Amino acid sequence: MVTARAVPLADASGVSILFVPQMEFACSHVVCDWRPDGAESTGVPLVEQQYDNSVTVKPQEGPAPPPLPPRRLRKPRPLSLPLPPLPPSLPPAPSSRPPVPSSRPPSAPPVAPPVPSSLPPVPSSRPPVSSSRPLSAPPVAPPVPSSLPPVPSSRPPVSSSRPPVSSSRPPVSSSRPPVSSSRPPVSSSRPPVSSSRPPGAPPVAPPVPPRGRRRGGVANVNVVSANIGELVDLERAAGPRSSQSPVVCGKCGAALSHLSSIQSSVWGCEFCGFDNAVRDGAKGACGDLGDDLYLSNQSDDDYQNLEDTLLVFCVDISGSMSVTAELPSSGGSPVHVSRLEGMQDALQGALSSVLQLSPHRRVALVTFNDEVVIYGDGTGAPLSLRDWALVDYDHIWQQGVAYSIPHCIAETYQQLAQRVKDLREHGATSLGPAALVSVAMASRYPGSKVILCTDGKANIGLGEMEPSPSPASSPTASYFYTRLGLQAVGSGVIISVMTFEGTDCRLADVGRLSDATGGKVNIVSIGTVATEIRSACVDNILATGVTATMFAPDGVYFPYKDDSNHKLVKAIGNVTRGLEVTIQFAVKPEFREVFLQRETLPFQLQLLFTTRDREKVTRVLTERRPVATCSSIPAGSLNVAVLGVHCAQLCASLTMGGRVQEAQRHLKAQQDLHQQISKQRPINEEENIYGNWMDTMTTICDDITTESQTLSDEAARVMYQMKSASSDKEYYNNNNKNNNST
User: Fold this and answer.
1) Counting C-beta atoms within 10 Å of the first and last residue's C-beta, which end of the chain has fewer, N or C?
2) Residue 311 and residue 494: Cα distance in Å, rounded?
3) What gap in Å lies between CA 230 and CA 214, rounded to an integer?
4) Which residues contact 582 (CB under 8 A, 6 or more apart)?
């Protein structure tokens, strides 16, 4: 299922022509009453109220009672410090003490403290009680305070009767029953809790289900998707084309479209309400289909031809590449092949494939161990970087940019093949400097690719993974690979990263290069590396420098992205076929009633990009969507593909950013929604793949512990693939194939 749906068009003769890719919404309407905490104004969770018709929930009248778990946690807490049990020698002791008070005058106040001092725990924690006992107290008095923790609060009259000490406590034993009877009020000190529950109902069961659902949240069905790979393909564009620049709002930047209203040469922006002065006939460049294309006459003068790009093989030849694996042979008996030998065979096959398919394409070779060697196209003298040069970012970049690659593969195939054949494994792994110099070389030719192959984490030079007992990522290494990825995006370079199975390469950090540039992240074996390299070599770049901007009416915001702006800008960079972008939006609570009074709300997607022939293009898609509340949206009408792809992309992004708990909550909400949809209509085979994605990511998130907020290479590979998830059949077929092969 492709999210950018095709709308067939026909010319005057009825012959089908090009189609219009549109924005695809998960819900037919804009749901105005979704809340981030998963509850509506009625206090009933959205999923339970709307999507599960088999469950009837009675709304609570009045304000909801306070949550029980906090009160339940306070239950075992003591109200005061517990008194230790009296030693066994204390009961007989009072029998020898009656003569003591009789020998002392009753009016001597200083004598009272020494008497309870024989009971160390009592006076230290309960001074009022000990000071209020008369000297002639019977022997029953000592055990009473130990069984009455809240005595100070239950005996206020004692302190008021202190002047007539001896006369106020003659009937000591008779005053004990009231003291012991003060214990029931301890349990009755929480009447509101018991009174708020219906009689006969369990004390905990009623409130627990709502709390469990809130913990998972309620899925937001306000999601829009766009297949950028199709939108940058100008051959599929059917709208009008203009050589002029679009007319944009002076406040928010939204473009004039067929939905705009112009009165007296004033255009009131339908997104922000700003009044713009426009010329007469400005709306003439806008078509009626909501798909407007603006082509700029400006282009890069240094562009020569479509095959003027560079393919760089950046290969690990460290000592660990000598590890062997047993593979079947054509003769029947198994043979042992090292990782480097498998890599050499894969590179030889890739060079032959590029020679046949793109003979005018430039190809370069870079190797790394404890030094970085630039072979280029194989015709010139190699350039080595070692020692201090491996830690100087600017020096490495300058060396890569200055290295010339003058010849195409048709002229250098033999030299490159020989360079690959002569490779030998030894030394450490200077992965970071090698990746940097490879990107620098490719930056001279926008649309170029770097294929990085390694079997271990970087341990020398820039991007070094610090060895430590904890597997947590190094902040310095993460910053290096993030910075290099952004620099590659600015230069129009795609980086694909491949690691060998059974190794620890810190793919969560190195994979940032591919994640930022639109490349592939994969784990290969000696037997599959050749296939994966040939697949990564395919020249499938459709556009570079792509930026997507989403406009919604003022009062709409974008959860997880921008909670205060109705405009969202997303820098995409390089685009290949099948690239899909999903965006989640929601209505601010104070705008809910305002939007419900309208019939529709406008949305606009602007794409700015550079085509393969270096032409600057702006494409504008605009449409309206009706508004509704969740109570009028049946679950069976929701687009499972859009919701599934968005869930995969969002949760993978949150997990890789360290926001694992947020990812878990969103996964739980989407899984609940998926179950509710399945109750109203059958889930077809293609839609089941999205449920499998959710289950896989849930398992990975659950495996991440609080002690180690890091991902294994296999888990990182899955998460990076989910970040680039697509509903395109070719994508998830390849994804399943990769999952089964590793």
Assistant:
1) C
2) 10
3) 38
4) 223, 224, 225, 642, 645, 646, 649, 650
List 150's β-bridge partners, or say none.
Answer: none
Question: Does position 57 have pLDDT exceeding 70, yes or no?
Answer: no
Q: Which of 23, 615, 684 is nearest to 303 (CA)?
A: 615
Percent of the chain whose predicted confidence (pLDDT) is above 70: 68
Let me know the angle formed at the C-alpha of 607 by 601 and 612, rounded to the nearest 5 degrees.
160
Q: What was the pLDDT predicted at 50?
A: 40
Over residues 274-317, the pLDDT tens digits come to: 999 998 888 877 878 888 899 986 655 544 455 678 999 999 99
| Three-state secondary-structure class, residue 621 | strand
Q: What pLDDT is attached to residue 201?
A: 53
Quote the tokens at residue 31. 């749901």
pLDDT at 169: 46
Confidence band, pLDDT 50/70/90 cuts, at residue 413: very high
Amino acid at 683: I
| Tokens encoding 436 | 């940097």
Token output for 493? 């370079």
Residue-wise burial string across 646-659, b where 16 or more C-beta atoms lie within 10 A, e elsewhere: bbbbbbbbbbbeee
Instruction: Yes or no: say if 24 and 645 are a contact pair by the CB < 8 Å rule.
Output: no
First-residue to last-residue Cα distance in the chain: 26
CA distance 369 to 71: 61
Domain extents in the chain: 310-538
Rg (CA), the chain: 37
At 430-452, the pLDDT tens digits run 999 999 999 999 999 888 999 99
Q: What is the pLDDT of residues 387-397, one digit of tens each?
A: 999 999 999 99
pLDDT of residue 734: 56
Of 681, 675, 678, which is closest to residue 695 (Cα–Cα)? 675
- Closest residue by Cα to residue 234 from 610, 557, 603, 736: 610
Average pLDDT of every residue of the chain? 76
| CATH fit for domain 310-538, picks 3.90.1150.30, 3.40.50.410, 3.40.50.150, 3.90.1640.10 | 3.40.50.410
